[in-house]
Amino acid sequence: MKSIFKGLAILTLTVLASCSSSVTNVYDYYLKNEVETHKAGQNSTSKSKLLLRVNERTNKAQIELVAFKRDSVKYLVIGSHKVAKSFYIHDSLYSFDVNDLYSRVRGDDFIRQMGDLSIFFTHVTAGRAAMLADAMSGLKAQYASARPGMGEVVYIDYTIASDIILSLEKRTATEKPVECTLWVGKRKHVIATADLEKALNDLKMFN
Fold first, then answer.
1. Mean pLDDT of 181-190
2. Residue 14 pairs with which residues in a beta bridge?
3. Contact, 8 vs 121, CB < 8 A?
4. Which contiguous run of DSSP H or E holds residue 202?
């Protein structure tokens, strides 16, 4: 039921320092060419709604969740944008944040010039996304009961699909799950947990 946009998985575009505050709008390319199905001589009607878009800082990362529906079929589309450096580790391609790799370099514009904009898209059925929404209370309960030791990090993970993993990270006994990590195509995005939950609930209401 899950389709991965392999054509855009390793799309790299040269990024200029002047675009530091811009928003990347390319999810319509993915919707039209990968999520939709087309037959010659036939017309179709579909609709989409941007549920969440988060722009991170130095690395110009962007994560977006998009609802898409055609006829009675509904999907959650996830787009991941990173100014990153790509490396192969054991035959798998990872996109590392340039500010993590070059942590001692000063100046956001200079850091951005060290990486390329890598764009990855994937999508899952609305039913699969609803399973995550329903699982959130249980994940939070596990998080609350976790007691990491000195220097430890406890990860409460939920696998949405093979290339989409939600991770709640806890470092101290009193820490709250205010933020969560969404791994999309082996790239990391940190977003507010409440924003993710709202987007998942909005997807349920999208008809």
1. 92
2. none
3. yes
4. helix 193-205
β-bridge pairing 154-161 and 164-170: antiparallel
pLDDT tens-digit readout, 140-178: 999 999 999 999 999 999 999 999 999 999 999 999 999
The first and second tokens of residue 16, run together, are 């200029």
Please report the pLDDT score of residue 119 as a whole number.
87
Name the DSSP letter for residue 18.
Answer: G
Determine the Cα–Cα distance for residues 149 and 154; give it in Å rounded to an integer: 9
Tell me: the pLDDT tens digits for 35-48? Answer: 988 889 988 889 99
What CA–CA distance (Å, rounded) separates 83 from 64? Answer: 15
CB atoms within 10 A of CB 51: 21
Query: Among 22, 28, 71, which Cα is nearest to 49's?
Result: 28
CB neighbour list of residue 173: distance below 8 Å, 6 or more residues apart: 147, 148
One DSSP character per residue, 107-152 reads -HHHHHTTSEEEEEEEEEEHHHHHHHHHHHHHHHHHHHH----TT-
Residue 134: partners with Cβ closer than 8 Å, 6 or more residues away: none
Structure tokens at 20: 């530091």
SS3 171: coil
State both tokens at 203.
């997807």
CA gap 173, 194 in Å, rounded = 20
Residue 194 has pLDDT above 70, yes or no: yes
- Collapsing DSSP to helix, strand or coil, 175 comes out as coil
